[in-house]
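fold-stage: in
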Amino acid sequence: MRGSPANRPRWSRRTALTAMVAMAAVAAATVATARTASAATWETVIDTSSFGSYPAFEAEWRYLYPWGSDHNGTARMYGSPSDHNHVILSDGVLTLKATHITWDEGTSSSSPHLPIHYHSGAVHAADQIVVTDQYPNYEVKGEFQAPTARGTWPAFWLTGVDSWPPESDILEFKGDSTNWFNTFRTASDVSTTKVGVGSAGSWHEYRAWITKVSATDVDIHYYVDGVWKGQHRANFVGKPMWLIINLQMEGSSGSPGPTADTVYRARNVYVGRSRA
């Protein structure tokens, strides 16, 4: 029952103002606490300084592909702590360099077993990316200068550790100025968003935001220079993935490729995740 007017408490303007100030203070403290808690749940996996020196690089990255030196093009990857001819660091920039060879070095050990025409560079992150209940969100991004001539095939991508697919291509140019955002759920079930990138040889940022949306699925949002370009859904929950940067040649990017050296540059590569 509501009290009669005679029995209602009388509040002075000063009392009301004091109460309003107190409530505002409580609200501000609550927001600050929420922001602090939210910030505390975000973890940096790879920070943007990993290309600052070879020791910093080798703490976060490994040379070659996770499975070795060969893949699906005509470039064989070279690189080690004592071999920096094709994996070069300078002023915070990673440069992968492909050099045309004129001798017979056989064929790639990976399908479709193309003849080796180049020596080039590939690196992969030491930490794997796996979306789970504990880590439901990932951000993967970096700035790149990508070659687009016929026969050049640069990539910044995720691929399955235990099986293929999963695969998510965050940057992939295949001999022209079109970037292919690909998400492979199976070999034949693929989502693709193609985006033309002006002056791809200048610095551009490529980004993927990966978020768990069900017990099995993630949504992957793809961006170029901070502009959203597409969203793909895939059954990637619980599937560990490698992060790879490589300069492959020919294959899907056409042939013949260039005879002069080709370079692919990266900087400010970052991986972060939320902890539930």
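fold-stage: in (second)
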Amino acid sequence: MRTVRPAVNRISGLMTVSVKALFTGLAVMTTACGGGEEPAAASQPVVAEAPPVSWGPVGLTQLSDFPTLGFAYRYTTDSGGSNAQGPSVPDSADVITISYSAADQSYEVKIPGLERGRLALVNGNASYSSNSLATSPSSTFQVVLYRPGAVNPELPLEYTSFGWWEDPIYTPIPGPLRSNNTGYFAYGVPTALGDVPVTGSATYHSLVAGETSASTSASLGASYVSGAANLTFNFSKGTLAGRLELVLDMGLGARDFGDFEFTTTSYTVGANGFSGKLSIPGSTEEGFFEGQFTGPQASELMVRWVLPQSVPEVGRTGSLFGVLVGKHQND
């Protein structure tokens, strides 16, 4: 079973039980739709009310449509929330979109498997906001957004942010199975071509967020992933080096999962994007990452990553996956 996680180290004080996992007797986990309720009949999506103006925007506001990097993950469980079954890795072709309307300070997102819909603020703190989605048939579905700005105590970002979606209640589907949908995405204001530095170097200190696939969760006893990353670019030579440091959230605690070096990196002088592989100590398997610079002069960045994880004890493979966002310090 995926580990139940009370509402969270990342959003402490934001909500009492927002989990992203599979259940241990109670339905808890990620996204898609309602628990014991019947799914809403297909109809024209209804646009929810905009977040209260007193809160102001809960995400980035510089663009009407933001580029994104991320993953959606869908899987099934039995009627009690056990025996999670899903793909070993998320589908990299899934597209998540987010847009902002300055007129009413509202956001709309398009999540794979759901219609495009407006977010409505439910709760928040200095680091995160929890938002309902108008087009979800479940009243407990939430989209959590990281708050940009200098007041965020975790990592103040101006041009980059990230979010995830989940639902602590499962969506019933015909037969004994239940359908679940979750995911992570980063979004930002892309650095304009020609504005990426071509001299000097910089190291980007980054915040990591993600989760595990169904089989990996069963093996590791964890569903959430957090951590840090450092990415060092030599702008004049067109080189990239770095390391991803992952921590598993065990529900009532956390443990280090390991460090994974960026290898076989692809970055050229003046380019806005970059990619590469992640080495796994003691394994022939490799992970993958891709990202792009955000903000003027490539002041920030956003990345999506996948790390395969063999699970021999359950006879199948799995993965850890997510996003990272960061800002640079000049070297």
